[in-house]
């Protein structure tokens, strides 16, 4: 049976200050690696963003969207599906948000004021999906491990950027304990020596299709490629 590989956690230089490849370059890299698609999840304004402060909200959102747009344009040329998401940061606790677009973001300039509880409520009301990214990662920017099993829809249980299998093991045990769906991703910035992601049994039509397959468990985790 054919499997279709998708990257679920990826950053671009247009919007994430820590990324070294543009959206178009990331698309080219993943096409060469045999992936069917990628989900661009740049760091939002409450994280390691490349978008300057002081601009009007809608202009900031448009700039934030550029990494995805450039990846999407390149993907259309080379036959790679590209979907949109983002990574929100709450004092080092990070969440991958799927299922919404930048037009929705433009209507919510107050989102930077949201608590984690607010985020879950408003994202859900709009039909989005919240994944706890690398929940057990330890880094200087992460003050403490904080868990919110009632405020997420799934858990990222394998992340190449963790560089520590113990973090992944704890995440897997946590998801199992709370009966939460699981995801895997590279946390790609452009300098990784290996890649991860998820495999599906048919090509994904859109980001909603991704969400439904994760919810149902109709997919496989890819630990490295």
TrEMBL record:
Pfam families: PHP_C. It comes from the Bacteria. Coiled coil: none annotated. InterPro entries: PHP_domain, Pol/histidinol_Pase-like. One of its GO terms (molecular function) is 5'-3' DNA exonuclease activity. This is PHP domain-containing protein. The lineage of its organism: Bacteria, Bacillati, Bacillota, Clostridia, Lachnospirales.
């Amino acid at each position: 049976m054919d499997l279709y590989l998708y990257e679920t956690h990826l950053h671009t230089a247009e919007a994430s200050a820590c990324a070294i490849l543009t959206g178009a370059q990331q698309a080219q890299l993943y096409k060469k690696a045999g992936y069917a698609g990628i989900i661009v999840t740049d760091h939002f304004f409450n994280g390691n963003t490349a978008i300057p402060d002081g601009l009007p909200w809608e202009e900031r959102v448009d700039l934030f969207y550029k990494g995805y747009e450039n990846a999407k344009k390149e993907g259309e040329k080379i036959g790679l599906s590209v979907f949109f998401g983002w990574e929100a940061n709450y004092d080092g606790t990070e969440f991958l948000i799927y299922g919404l677009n930048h037009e929705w973001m433009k209507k919510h300039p107050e989102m930077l004021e949201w608590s984690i509880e607010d985020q879950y409520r408003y994202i859900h009301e709009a039909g989005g999906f919240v994944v706890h990214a690398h929940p057990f990662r330890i880094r200087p920017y992460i003050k403490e491990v904080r868990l919110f099993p009632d405020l997420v829809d799934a858990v990222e249980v394998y992340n190449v950027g963790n560089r520590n299998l113990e973090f992944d093991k704890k995440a897997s045990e946590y998801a199992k304990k709370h009966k939460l769906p699981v995801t895997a991703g590279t946390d790609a910035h452009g300098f990784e020596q290996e890649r991860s992601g998820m495999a599906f049994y048919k090509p994904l039509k859109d980001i909603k299709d991704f969400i439904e397959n994760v919810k149902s468990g109709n997919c496989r985790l890819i630990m490295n490629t």
